[in-house]
TrEMBL record:
Identification of the protein by name: Sulfate ABC transporter permease subunit CysW
Organism domain of life: Bacteria
Keywords assigned by UniProt, alphabetized: Membrane, Sulfate transport, Transmembrane, Transmembrane helix, Transport
Pfam families (alphabetical): BPD_transp_1
Subunit description: The complex is composed of two ATP-binding proteins (CysA), two transmembrane proteins (CysT and CysW) and a solute-binding protein (CysP).
CDD domains from the UniProt entry: TM_PBP2
Length: 289
């Protein structure tokens, strides 16, 4: 029996911050978000509409802008599915199996986070450029990589590769291999086990990874600007087109195209938040499994 003279502390009270501390932290967080996120985002849309809808529509429908939009969508349509397939394979191998070089593979997955995108683009130029290591062979076989679509795809794939794998690895590790082992014991093939057990269990993490990967693919600037050559109307993606317009002091058109990228970011955030809210119970149940 507890000693009545011993003071009793309520855990929830002891761990609860005072009102002024909570108010201060909340104020600082809101001030930071307002200054560095909300105001810049709002200014993009304000500047884009400063001269009215007609100027906005003209800026986003002129030939170079349409070419940049199509190229951005094409690069993302190639890079994102590739990263999904490779990211799933890498996460499955790391989370479900033990093998020599596993830690090295994890380091390689994280490499794009630690290398500047500009440096990664430069590496591709040194490898595949006209004066690069493979340049003479590519030229002899009439293959264009740098200053062409393949170079843009390679640079985008490298920069966006970690997003899918990094969303899946911790989730797969938390789930363990019990379900897969049970399915294999009952006679299911490895592929059937993967598509009916593994993949459905990590579908939310996979979807988040795809959202982040797609948003980064469409907004990538550093690596793409090195390998593209900035050939207007041919190898300029939307971020590069924004830079060209801004350097030409065509700020309204630059902000108009930038607003499309900002809108993509808002759609990504809204969709992710909606899924987390609407399917919160399902997501939590999957993670507890």
């Amino acid at each position: 029996m507890a000693d009545p003279t011993t003071p009793v502390y309520r855990t929830d009270t002891a761990l609860r911050d005072g009102f002024w501390i909570r108010a201060l932290l909340l104020t600082l967080a809101l001030a930071f978000l307002t200054l560095f996120l909300f105001l810049p985002l709002l200014s993009v849309f304000v500047e884009a509409s400063r001269k009215g809808y007609a100027a906005f529509a003209e800026a986003v429908t002129e030939p170079d802008a349409l070419s940049a939009i199509r190229l951005t969508l094409l690069v993302a349509a190639i890079a994102v599915p590739f990263n999904v397939v490779v990211g799933i394979a890498a996460a499955w191998a790391i989370a479900k199996f033990e093998f020599r070089g596993k830690s090295l593979l994890i380091s390689f997955i994280d490499l794009p986070f630690s290398v500047s995108p500009v440096i990664s683009g430069l590496v591709f130029v040194l490898l595949f450029g006209a004066q690069g290591f493979l340049g003479p062979w590519l030229k002899a076989n009439n293959i264009e990589i740098i200053f062409a679509l393949p170079g843009l795809v390679l640079a985008t794939v490298f920069v966006t590769f970690p997003f899918v794998a990094r969303e899946l690895i911790p989730h797969m590790q938390a789930l363990g291999s019990t379900d897969e082992e049970a399915a294999l014991t009952l006679g299911a093939s490895p592929w059937r086990t993967f598509f009916t057990i593994t993949l459905p269990n990590v579908k939310w993490s996979l979807f988040y990874g795809v959202l982040l990967c797609n948003a980064r693919a469409m907004g990538e600037f550093g690596a793409v600007t090195v390998v593209s050559g900035r050939i207007r109307g041919l190898t300029t993606t939307m971020p590069l087109h924004v830079e060209i317009l801004y350097n030409e002091y065509n700020s309204v058109a630059a902000f108009a195209v930038a607003s499309l990228l900002a809108g993509l970011a808002l759609v990504t955030l809204t969709l992710k938040t909606y899924l987390e809210w609407h399917y919160a119970d399902a997501i939590a149940a999957t993670k507890r499994h």
